[in-house]
């Protein structure tokens, strides 16, 4: 008979509790890909280690999605992973916690820390995000259990300047300063502090030099299909979208097409002998209500009939991307934050899952200078170009080089993802940190 999660957590051996806070663990494809798949891979690599997820879930989501939560708990139990969900008196829109809500959150984090230590008896707590790390800090204070502070991106800066997504409540100045103080407290208390990019690692080392031995990069990761599967998917997708043209792909949440149109027009002008099509993979649910048909809308907005817009499930994105030739990652700050140093820090340190998915599909990327560490990586590994820092002539020269050696570019992009951003590589990095933390 299969042991229950509670019984597994009572067995001898390392016990890791992975803490998330305020994020939507039930509905978010990002959490499924970046948390649950990571835990499955770590479990496969170290079967004797016991894993459980503890989620502080906003109370409205907790109530609305209780059946989905139960289904998720059963799914993870089949993989040997426990799931514990606690409702908190918060709304998801307050992912960036303002100063006036901090006491309420801290009280709930304290209750969670007491419960985790008492019931789950972890040997290590892995905390995804700054709010989750407050739980880890409290577990360490109360139970002397080490924790890993998984920063992802610089949360205070992101909360002060980020303008996209459902997290509509940004941090004001007092809230920003509060979180910068907490950042220092958490970094100094953590057994290890991880970040997803080299630029953010450099920032942390410069800010907390005494902690340099406890800082490291554990990058964003993605499913990296084998190359034979990509070849098969490429043929299938190009047949489905009915094109022999060169294909420029964009995948992500709903966005206005203006930036994409500008890049597309530059690419067309730079390669007058090439006929281009656009493949858009966007979320239908993010579209405004007055847009019933994605294809009609984007074909009009982008000024071309050579456009196919699809609403693809997360597990189908790689299959569709395989049918493209290049990918584009357009981004531009608003005038309100263009000259804000906090925006500059956030934009150069974050790295998007979307960018890694492009590489995993074998796609070189036309990336904006504002798209985080991706701009550095395309130059480091020669897997794309930072299109908004170069002239039209330089873009044409790069596209000509790509045309002459497209297969090498495709293989190099895939190899970069496979070597640095695959599930097994990142899982191995985290397991090594757990061992060093004696957790």
Kindly report how far apart the N and C termini lie.
28 Å
Q: What percentage of the residues does DSSP assign to strands (E)? A: 15-25%
Count of the separate structural domains: 2
Low-confidence stretches: none
Count the DSSP helices.
19
Q: Which strand order does the major sheet show?
A: 3-2-1-4-5-6-7
Please summarize the sheet with the most strands.
7 strands, parallel
CATH C-level name of the largest domain: Alpha Beta
The class by helix and strand makeup works out as alpha/beta
Fraction in helix: 40-55%
CATH architecture of the largest domain: 3-Layer(aba) Sandwich
The count of DSSP E runs of length 2 or more, i.e. the number of strands, is 13
Commentary on this structure:
The protein is of the alpha/beta class and 439 residues long. It folds into two domains: 5-221 and 423-436, Glycogen Phosphorylase B (Rossmann fold, 3-Layer(aba) Sandwich); 227-420, 3-Layer(aba) Sandwich (Rossmann fold), CATH 3.40.50.2000. The protein is 49% helix and 15% strand. The protein has 19 helices and 13 strands. The protein has helices spanning 5-9, 29-45, 59-64, 66-78, 102-120, 130-143, 155-161, 173-189, 198-207, 227-240, 258-270, 294-302, 317-321, 341-349, 353-360, 374-381, 392-404, 406-420, 423-436; strands spanning 15-21, 50-58, 81-88, 124-128, 147-150, 192-195, 215-217, 246-252, 276-282, 307-310, 326-329, 365-367, 384-386. A seven-stranded parallel sheet has the order 3-2-1-4-5-6-7, sandwiched between helices. Helix 11 (258-270) links the parallel strand 8 and strand 9. Helix 5 crosses helix 6 (130-143), helix 7 runs antiparallel to helix 8 and helix 15 (353-360) packs across helix 18 (406-420). The longest helix has 19 residues, at 102-120. The model has no long low-confidence stretch (mean pLDDT 90).
């Amino acid at each position: 008979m299969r042991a229950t999660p509670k019984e597994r957590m009572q067995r001898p051996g390392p016990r890791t509790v992975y803490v998330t806070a305020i994020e939507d663990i039930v509905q978010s494809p990002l959490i499924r890909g970046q948390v649950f798949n990571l835990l499955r891979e770590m479990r496969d690599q170290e079967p004797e280690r016991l894993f459980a997820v503890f989620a502080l879930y906003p109370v409205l989501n907790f109530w609305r999605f209780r059946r989905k939560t139960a289904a998720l708990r059963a799914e993870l139990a089949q993989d040997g992973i426990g799931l514990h969900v606690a409702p908190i008196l918060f709304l998801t829109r307050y992912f960036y916690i303002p100063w006036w809500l901090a006491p309420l959150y801290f009280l709930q984090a304290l209750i969670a820390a007491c419960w985790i230590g008492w019931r789950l008896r972890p040997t290590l707590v892995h905390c995804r995000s700054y709010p989750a790390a407050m739980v880890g800090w409290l577990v360490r204070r109360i139970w002397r259990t080490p924790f890993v502070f998984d920063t992802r991106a610089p949360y205070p800066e992101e909360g002060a300047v980020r303008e996209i997504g459902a997290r509509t409540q940004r941090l004001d100045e007092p809230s920003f300063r509060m979180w910068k103080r907490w950042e220092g407290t958490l970094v100094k208390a953590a057994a290890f502090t991880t970040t997803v990019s080299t630029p953010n690692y450099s920032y942390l080392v410069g800010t907390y030099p005494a902690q340099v031995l406890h800082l490291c990069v554990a990058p964003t990761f993605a499913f990296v299909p084998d190359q034979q599967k990509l070849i098969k998917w490429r043929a299938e997708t190009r047949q489905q979208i009915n094109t022999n043209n060169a294909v420029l792909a964009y995948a992500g949440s709903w966005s206005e097409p203006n930036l994409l149109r500008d890049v597309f027009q530059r690419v067309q002008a730079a390669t007058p002998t090439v006929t281009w099509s656009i493949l858009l993979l966007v979320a239908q649910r993010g579209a405004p209500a007055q847009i019933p048909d994605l294809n009609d809308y984007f074909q009009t907005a982008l000024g071309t009939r050579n456009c196919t817009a699809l609403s693809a499930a997360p597990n189908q994105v790689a299959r569709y991307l395989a049918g493209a030739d290049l990918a584009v990652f357009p981004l531009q700050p608003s005038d309100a934050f263009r000259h804000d140093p906090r925006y500059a820090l956030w934009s150069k340190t974050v790295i998007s899952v979307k960018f890694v998915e492009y590489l995993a599909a074998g796609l070189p990327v036309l990336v904006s200078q504002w798209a985080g560490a991706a701009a550095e990586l395309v130059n480091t590994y020669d897997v794309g170009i930072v299109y908004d820092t170069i002239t039209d002539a330089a873009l044409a020269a790069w596209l000509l080089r790509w045309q002459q050696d497209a297969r090498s570019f495709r293989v190099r992009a895939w190899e970069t993802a496979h070597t640095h951003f695959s599930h097994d590589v990142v899982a191995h990095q985290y397991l090594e940190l757990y061992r060093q933390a004696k957790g």
